[in-house]
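Issue 218. Parser rejects a valid record. Input:
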Amino acid sequence: MTKINDNISRLILSISKADFLFLIEEDKGNVSVLHAFGNLEIHQQDIEKLTLEVIKDHTNLTSSEIFNEFKNNYSLNDIYVSRINYLDSLYSLVVLNKNKFGNSDETLAQFELINKILVDNILSNKEIDLFTDVFENVDAVIYTINRTTKKFLFMKGSLKNLYGFIPEDIITNPFLSRKIIAEENLKEFLNFNRKALNGQKSVLEYKINDKLGNIRYVRHTAIPVNLEGNKKYIIGIVIDITDEKRIQRLLESSEAKFRQLVETADDLIFSLNKNGYFQSINKSGSNALGYSSDEIINKHFLEFIDDDSKADIAVVFQDMLTNANVTTFETTFLERFGSKLVFEIQASPLYEEGKINGLIGIGRDITQRRQDELKLKELNTKLIEANRIISIERDRAKQQITVLEELNKLKNEFISNVSHELRTPLASIVGFAETIVSDAELPQETIHEFSNIILTEGKRLARLVNDILDFSKLESGTETLNRINFNLAATLKELSETFKESAESKGISLNIEIPEAQIEIFADKERIQKAFSNIISNGIKFTDKGGRVSILVQDFLKEVEVIISDTGIGIPNEKIPELFQKFSKVNRPGSQIPGAGFGLVTVKQIIDLHKGLIQVKSEINKGTSFIVRLPKKN
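Output the parser choked on:
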């Protein structure tokens, strides 16, 4: 019995959604309607009258043909027919509906069951108790009301569980049911009740306060029923939907919280359909791009992507739709005013009926992070470059320290050498002078000899002092050139004459080859003479007896070249760069010739001041050549 009631309960709920319900008798080819009730909100005509008119016009048709005709005339999409033989007559239960609501074997079985119950009750003339036994234990409140007298005829079901009352409480006091209805729903309920009494199918959800003061929610369905003899009833079904409402409120609350979370999130949250068009986007996301949500929804996502990123992002999108990948990627959006925004997107496929229908994504603006990373990269590059420069400068500083240390060493050696060069002539001068002064009996010839030595050493000392003074002036950069136009060829010829005696005294030949024409240059004559004097003097100094010193002058268009060569002891190639260094004195192999080391340094300074060039070529024991090039004009 319980299973039957459960089936009938589900069937009644289905019938409450139906547009037409017929119970038809076929007797010897004649068709007559025993019952017809339906939804008068959809059809404003009396259902029973309408049905009779249809049958009257088709008395020669079978019931199936009639139902199909009725279905076509009133645009009905679904039809269920259940037939049963009873006392040599065929009865058919027919449900017609505008919208399909299922076609399962279980539904058809329920129709057959209700068909038999209806036939049994109607033919046995038990109209009032029509559904009493059927709904004895249904998990709902089932009742019937006489629409004419507005009195309850029966009430069964879970009345006590739902309202806290027994059926007799309501039947004897109909207004009790109104008292338990929440005040805010009372007006809707009265309107619902009025429509049901007027023959309209009505459904209403409302809140009640049961006998214990508990708040509950119900769904109340009122189905008008018209029987033969102008008997009109209301079949009512009241179902407790408190749990359903609670779940609904929880769902609504959850959805509201989710919507609030989405809308207040700082991240970009969006969904796309399978064609790439925006279906939704949160406020923070649209604001970040400089648009409202309405301006973005239904537009293709590539409209908001930077041109350089479109190809890559299109491939990612297609891959997600094809392979159902959950992926993380970066892309560049263009905001309204053209600024580029870099977003890190986490995206997942969206499914509908088991098929991928789009994607949902969450994007975080990482523009500032990427800019910071770029700046950091640039800073790292600069730091690496700075470290490289520092390393170079450190190495350079080390080299400079080494050079300074070497210069300091050379300076000390130079000072020591100069001191020696100064003391040697001074010692000779003082010694011979003291001898002459202290010995009155010295022969005149000895006095004359000693006097010549004093004179020679004095001149040597004077030259050394002059060399020191010249070096100091040239080194400080305070020396100014006294430039004049003069004949260089004549000057060199005069110099060769001054050195001829000292060369011959060593048994050295001094040769000069000079063009006959004048070679005029614009230079400091005195400084030029000093430079060439130092070179010639060195050539004689480092050439042995029987050797040769040569002076060759060549005249070119814009410069003059002077080559002074000797056949002396030569200079090692590795020592040549030291010839013109400050404080440096190159000791030639096998040579202990005195000198302070000023000469060639001074020569280089003078030639440089005149924008000239000096070069040295030398071979050990074969000699040395100094090549000097001077511009003719400044």
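Fixed in the parser; the record now loads. The CA atoms of residues 139 and 252 lie 27 Å apart.
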